[in-house]
Write a structure and sequence with these properties.
Distance between the termini: 14 Å
Strand content: 15-25%
Largest sheet: 9 strands, antiparallel
Shape: elongated
Radius of gyration: 36 Å
CATH architecture of the domain at 505-544 and 882-1037: Up-down Bundle
Number of strands: 32
Oligomer: single chain
Helix content: 40-55%
Number of helices: 35
CATH topology of the domain at 505-544 and 882-1037: Multidrug efflux transporter AcrB transmembrane fold
Structural class: alpha+beta
Length: 1037
């Protein structure tokens, strides 16, 4: 350490230049850091999407999802496998263990997909490499000149390709609009008249819609590429295709059917309402970021691309209107964090001036703050650690300057004792060398306190590991500044004689404290009863405090999952979506309301037209009525929607909704999964559970997540009758698939665009069960028989959505929690379910999922790792002081400091969650540091042959100012964060509350209890030590 301090003082010019260079590099690193509001908390996930138009949920499950699931069983690192099956869509979600690399997982899944046998028209694909937090930009395309068909074409063929060119964009999804098709609606009676089958039509169109290449033709000095042009260009070309010749007369496609521009059966409808817009049939784009990219940079490039499209590419009267931009959330949260950090830094500087009585000393100590942050940015850039509100907001400037304060206080103390002398480099070297080792060990202990965070897994790991790195890097930077820079600057600032500042109020406070310690040393055992009372109080408070996983992360928006009546038509869905938007927009705090009926074109979510996702944008909180909160607004919205029949709603937020869907497979805080192969039985149990949960205080938005059964028209093949007529079941299936459902039989290219050609019977032939039953089948002998003779046609109900997890069917009861902690709710819910819900425990299995799993896992990891970290701290203290009893004494402040944190959580109505637990972890390191400052100096005085009692009394007096100063700046550094209410403060607040109030109690304990315990212990061992006191190692000055 002496060599380090020698460099700091004798080579102070070199050190100044070095740190100036580090500051420049640090600023450059800051500009290159990935900055987001919240870290990407999703696990490595691969989603297999298979769209098969026309198939019901039962067939999708049986023919698509189950074969894929079986192929994926046993994948290395696979943690959870879920699937959702609905009309025309299968999504299989594969969630992998922590540490599995994204591309490796996708490669393994792709390898196994190759061997899966699926129907001929089922082509599984992997969703883009993004994450639930990857939706960074949403917009609507609006025009006062283009109709919906033209607007959709413009979006799909112009806007989306341009946005996909942006580096870092994984995909751009289309929602709403209509997908153009060339449709052929043939008349079955005219087909019978001309003896034409659907196979004839398909064959003729394929043969009359081709181009050909004929190699090259050489003529003289030139070579010509030979092209045969025969592609259909429009409906007129299509209609003039000859299907058959009857008695020498050609039968054209026009003769047996109607050709028109139509559209693919719509899967989703987009509605949007704000102060100037209101439409129920719009086109939306959703930009998804490639996982691991820098959102700030990607969004900047997306904004440029949007400006280019609006100003240069799109036709007049057509614009892209963004309504959900992650930049807004990033800027708002960074404003919140920077505001609290700035307030904390100002408070720290003011306290330093007040305590030190020197603006020069205060500013030199405060210089530690920006320099340590810039050093942290360098290390974050090198190790690829992103910056977010949680990692930056957890930095306590007061803790950062502790080492610099001790170093500066040592120099000032030297100046105060020799006010008229010119201080020499060697005299400052001796004094500052004495405290260098304690500064090093105390900082190391604080860093050690954060080690348990590296044991986290899954969501809590992704939330808090970047924070641990960031704080650790900042502390390392602060240590470098305190050891390498501050001694030289302090010597330069105070080497000449100067006026000594006397802080009168601090001197009076120190005198009063000294007299109290003198009296306490007469009867040191008086601290035992208060000590035991505090320990008992800490135990009681830890039992009574509510327990959760995480506080809600405010995103400044609301996301509502809305369930409409099952089997509802698309027109009715649009109507109900418009009514929903109108109702929500009436709240003056709302800036816009967006409704998504059904699902997007890519099938990212397996929703039917009975499901609506509703995004609600909020105006800045500063414009709201004083005292009104987002929770109050949600309560008002929920009460209003309860009065509207047909709407079942669940409230959440955009990002956390998608994250919870991945974690628990449900869009809610908590989910109870009911595993059973019998869907009817599962539905009955789920309804019972939902009724029970609704009666528990704090339960909100309780509902069965899967949609109820929806109407079906079933055509059940009669195998005996089919065999009697010499037919196959496939003949019936082909008639259903092609003639009724419609199938793509070719494509038409228009420039760079391509459109499907669809052929099926006209609407008049298939718009009722009776007419469907009259459709004709042709037997092997040429006889025509109606479909009703070989199949039963009936109206019934069938599954709307079938969900599976780890190869088992299940239903999910979702519930959000409001005003109740997770642990208390679960205890009451389990008791009521056991009492009131009856089911066969052999065939039905119930399991909680969601934040409960995360909480249990996080606390289990902390319970295993925190004792190890405490043991490591004890070893560090023992290695430094050489006496186990003193190391244990300094560790004893830990349970005592917990009392203040627990009391603060109870008083402020907060819960013990992962964020506050991280606050306790940080509190441990800081509390121990104060003990080190006290005990080390007492040890130092004893080496000078001081009496034990005199050493304790004198040492406490000498260390009163530095302990009070370091504790005060540490408390004030996080005080603004503990009371902040802006967007982004939710995770900071519990952490800061624990440190602020816990440190207040820990400081009192350090100043009073620790000296008394030290005196009693050392009095007992006085004269028994094998090692002379002079050989004890000093920890702190």
């Amino acid at each position: 350490m002496k060599r380090i301090i020698y460099l700091a003082i004798h080579r102070r010019g070199l050190m100044f230049v070095l740190f100036l260079f580090l500051a420049i590099v640090g600023y450059y690193s800051w500009t290159r850091l990935a900055i987001d509001a919240y870290p990407d908390i999703a696990d490595t996930t691969v989603q297999v999407v298979t769209q098969v138009p026309g198939l019901a949920a039962e067939e999708i499950e049986q023919q698509i999802s189950i074969p894929i699931e079986r192929a994926m069983n046993g994948l290395p690192g696979l943690n959870v496998m879920r699937s959702k099956n609905t009309f025309g869509l299968s999504t299989v979600v594969l969630v992998f263990d922590d540490g599995i690399e994204d591309y490796w997982a996708r490669q393994r899944v792709q390898e196994r997909l190759v061997d899966v046998e699926l129907p001929y028209n089922a082509v599984p694909g992997l969703n883009p490499l993004t994450s639930p937090t990857g939706e960074i930009f949403r917009y609507v395309v609006e025009s006062d000149r283009l109709d919906l068909r033209e607007l959709t074409d413009l979006h799909k063929w112009v806007i989306i390709p341009r946005l996909k060119q942006v580096t870092g964009v994984a995909d751009v999804s289309n929602y709403g609009g209509i997908t153009t098709q060339y449709q052929i609606e043939v008349n079955p009676y005219k087909m019978e008249q001309y003896d034409i089958t659907l196979g004839d039509i398909t064959e003729k169109i394929e043969k009359n819609n081709v181009n050909a290449g004929g190699s090259m033709l050489s003529r003289g000095d030139l070579s010509y590429v030979i092209r045969g042009i025969g592609l259909v260009k429009d409906l007129e070309d299509l209609g003039h295709i000859v299907i058959k010749t009857v008695n020498g007369v050609p039968v054209y496609l026009n003769d047996i059917g109607k050709l028109k521009y139509g559209n693919l059966e719509r899967k989703g409808v987009l509605g949007f309402t704000d102060d100037t817009r209101d439409y129920s049939n719009g086109v939306e784009g959703i930009v998804q970021m490639l996982r691991g990219e820098n959102p700030s940079r990607v969004l900047d490039d997306v904004h440029k691309a949007v400006d280019e499209l609006n100003n240069e590419t799109l036709p007049e009267g057509t614009r892209i209107h963004p309504f959900m931009d992650r930049t807004d959330l990033v800027n708002t949260t960074l404003h919140t964090v920077s505001h609290t950090l700035f307030e904390g830094m100002v408070l720290v500087v003011l306290v330093l001036i007040l305590f030190l009585g020197s603006w020069r000393g205060a500013l030199l100590v405060a210089l530690t703050i920006p320099l340590s942050l810039l050093i942290a940015f360098i290390l974050m850039h090198v190790t690829n650690i992103p910056a977010n509100l949680l990692s930056l907001g957890a930095i306590d400037f007061g803790i950062l300057v502790d080492g610099a304060i001790v170093m500066m206080e040592t120099v000032l103390k030297k100046r105060e004792r020799h006010p008229d002398e010119v201080l020499t480099e060697d005299s400052i070297l001796r004094r500052t060398t004495e405290v260098a080792r304690p500064i090093f060990f105390s900082t190391l202990i604080i860093i050690t306190a954060y080690l348990p965070l590296f044991a986290f897994e899954h969501i809590e790991k992704k939330l808090f590991t970047p924070m641990a790195y960031t704080v650790g890097y900042a502390l390392l930077g602060a240590l470098c500044v305190a050891l390498f820079l501050i001694p030289g600057l302090a010597f330069y600032a105070y080497r000449k004689p100067g006026k000594i500042y006397h802080n009168r109020w601090l001197e009076k406070l120190s005198t009063a404290y000294h007299s109290q310690i003198v009296r306490l040393m007469e009867k040191p055992r008086r601290v035992i009863v208060p000590l035991l009372a505090i320990l008992l109080g800490a135990g009681i408070l830890s039992y009574t405090v509510g327990k959760d996983f995480l506080p809600p992360l405010d995103e400044g928006a609301i996301w509502i999952q809305v369930q409409l009546p099952p089997g509802i038509s698309i027109e009715k869905s649009k109507e109900m979506g418009a009514e929903l938007r109108k109702t929500l927009k009436e709240f003056k705090e709302v800036s816009y309301v967006m409704t998504q009926v059904g699902r997007d074109d890519e099938g990212a979510e397996a929703f039917s037209l009975s499901h609506v996702e509703c995004g609600v944008g909020l105006k800045p909180y500063s414009t709201w009525e004083f005292g009104k909160t987002k929770a109050d607004l949600i309560e008002e919205m929920a009460a209003k929607l309860e009065t509207m029949p047909g709407y079942s709603v669940g409230f959440s937020q955009p990002i956390i909704d998608m994250v919870m869907d991945q974690i628990a497979g449900a869009h809610s805080d908590l989910a109870l999964k009911i595993y059973s192969d019998d869907i009817t039985e599962s539905r009955h149990i789920a309804d019972q559970v939902a009724n029970v949960l609704k009666e528990i205080p704090g339960a909100a938005d309780v509902a069965v997540d899967q949609e109820p059964p929806l109407p079906q028209l079933q055509i059940i093949a009669d195998r005996a009758r089919i065999a009697q007529y010499g037919l196959n079941v496939s003949d019936v299936a082909d008639l259903i698939e092609l003639a009724i459902g419609g199938a793509s039989i070719s494509q038409i290219f228009v420039g760079s665009k391509s459109y499907d050609v669809i052929c099926r019977f006209d609407d008049a032939s298939r718009n009722s069960p009776e007419r469907i039953g009259n459709l004709l089948l042709t037997t092997g002998s040429g006889t025509k028989i109606p479909l009703s003779q070989v199949a039963e046609i009936k109206m019934t109900t069938g599954a709307s959505t079938i969900t599976r997890e780890m190869n088992k069917r299940h239903l999910t009861v979702r519930v959000n929690l409001r005003g109740v902690d997770l642990t208390a709710f679960l205890n009451k819910a389990n008791a009521l379910i056991d009492k009131e819900v009856k089911y066969d425990h052999d065939s039905v299995h119930l399991k909680w999922a969601g934040q409960f799993e995360n909480q249990h896992r996080a606390y289990a990891r902390l319970g295993a790792v925190v004792p190890l970290a405490l043991g490591l701290m004890l070893l560090l203290l023992f290695a430094a002081c050489g006496k186990f009893r003193q190391a244990a004494l300094m560790m004893s402040v830990v349970p005592l400091a917990l009392f203040g944190g627990m009391l603060a959580l109870n008083v402020r109505g907060m819960t013990l969650n992962v964020s506050s637990a991280v606050g306790f972890i940080a509190l441990v390191g800081v509390a121990i540091q104060n003990g080190v400052i006290m005990i080390s100096h007492i040890n130092n005085l004893r080496t000078r042959e001081r009496d034990l009692k005199d050493a304790v009394i004198t040492g406490t007096k000498h260390r009163f100012r530095p302990i009070l100063m370091t504790a005060t700046v540490a408390v004030l550094g996080l005080l603004p964060a503990s009371v902040s209410t802006g967007i982004g403060s939710d995770v900071q607040r519990p952490l800061a509350t624990v440190i602020v109030y816990g440190l207040l109690f820990a400081t009192v304990i350090t100043l009073y209890v620790l000296p008394a315990l030290y005196y009693m212990i050392e009095k007992h061992y006085e004269g028994k030590d094998l090692m002379p006191v002079s050989e004890e190692k000093e920890l702190h000055a």
